[in-house]
Specification:
By secondary structure, this protein is an alpha/beta fold. Helices cover 24% and strands 23% of the residues. The chain starts with 6 loop residues before the first strand and ends in a 5-residue tail after the last helix. Residues 1-18 and 22-31 have low confidence and may be disordered.
């Protein structure tokens, strides 16, 4: 009977960021009220790569087709070379691709930022748009479309909602999956805690001792399968710990498993695979307390992304008695 592991990956949400418009800079003189882009050809310089320039052109083309419908006027855009001084009079826009946009208006973190221009806005040309780089093509194009919408006077509550709403789920460029990284966490030090509402203080302390045995084995390298810079600290608070160990009477593990791990993480590039682990829950299913250390050690290797084929023999080839009895590495 095989009682090794059952691993379940929980659903992972994409990174959610927001586009934001800076406050209008000043109100112009009263008189004829018309948007400065209305019926104009707007010169746009893009400080970015060829890919980023092409995606910006896509965003501009979208608004050339939809400005009349959503902004109430026709407009055209003309890409100019970086550093070129347009020879025609009229509004000028500079789109800068940056590593971090930072704050924008009342938003501390944004994927993009642009002034929201309307008929009474006085702007010092060029109007500057910032777009965070590192997103995939669809997300970069969407952020650029969103920010150009602000230039045309659109707010987060305006149509088209699929472009202008404030918060969006954006995907980054491809990143290494957790299975491809030496340590699938953002930190090489993991904290582990015991959780169990039905445990007495004495029982919790006994489980903590078993977890400490397993943590020491893994922190010392687990027979060479865990990188040398990795460490595992046993802590008291399960709410803030990276890894939580919980004895349970039953769980949605494989029917013959004595333990299983629930892995949570992020998938910023939206490829369907976790790139970074954020939390692991180790469930000990109907086990005697003295059997906990073998199962916790086995599941901690899952938490560190150790490939199944690389599991040390003392864990991979353990007998039933070794998996169900005392084991101290």
């Amino acid at each position: 009977m095989d009682r090794r592991t059952a691993v379940a990956l929980v659903a992972v949400a994409l990174v959610t960021v927001s586009g934001c418009s800076a406050a209008s800079e000043a109100v112009g003189e009263l008189g004829e009220q018309r948007h400065p882009f209305a019926d104009e050809t707007v010169a746009v310089a893009v400080d970015g790569t060829d890919r980023e320039r092409a995606l910006t052109r896509d965003a501009l083309t979208y608004w050339e087709s939809h400005a009349a419908e959503y902004a109430g006027f026709e407009t055209e855009f003309r890409l100019v070379d970086p550093g070129e001084t347009p020879t025609t009079a009229g509004p000028i826009v500079e789109v800068r691709f940056v590593e971090t946009v930072g704050d924008c208006g009342d938003t501390d973190y944004s994927a993009g930022c642009a002034p929201r221009i309307n008929a009474t806005t006085r702007v010092d040309w060029p109007a500057t748009v910032r777009v965070q780089r590192g997103f995939d093509d669809d997300s970069t194009r969407l952020v650029a479309m969103h920010e150009v919408g602000h230039l045309l006077g659109r707010s987060h509550d305006d149509a088209p909602r699929d472009v202008m709403r404030h918060e969006r789920a954006l995907a980054t460029l491809p990143r290494p999956n957790a299975s491809e990284r030496p340590v699938p966490w953002n930190d090489s030090t993991l904290t582990v805690a015991v959780r169990g509402e039905g445990l007495s203080d004495a029982e919790r302390a006994a489980y903590r001792e078993e977890v400490a045995y397993a943590a020491a084995y893994v922190g010392e390298g687990a027979d060479g399968t865990v990188p040398a810079n990795v460490s595992v600290d046993v802590v008291d608070d399960p709410e803030t710990a990276d890894v939580v160990v919980e004895p349970v009477a039953s769980a949605e593990c494989r029917p013959d498993a004595g333990s299983c791990a629930r892995v949570e993480g992020t998938d910023p590039d939206a490829d369907g695979a976790i790139e970074t682990y954020t939390r692991v829950e180790i469930l000990l299913v109907d086990l005697d307390r003295e059997a906990a250390s073998w199962h916790v050690a086995r599941q901690l290797l899952v938490a560190f992304g150790v490939d199944e084929a690389a599991i040390p023999a003392r864990l991979a080839d353990a007998t039933y008695d070794e998996r169900r009895g005392a084991w101290h590495g």
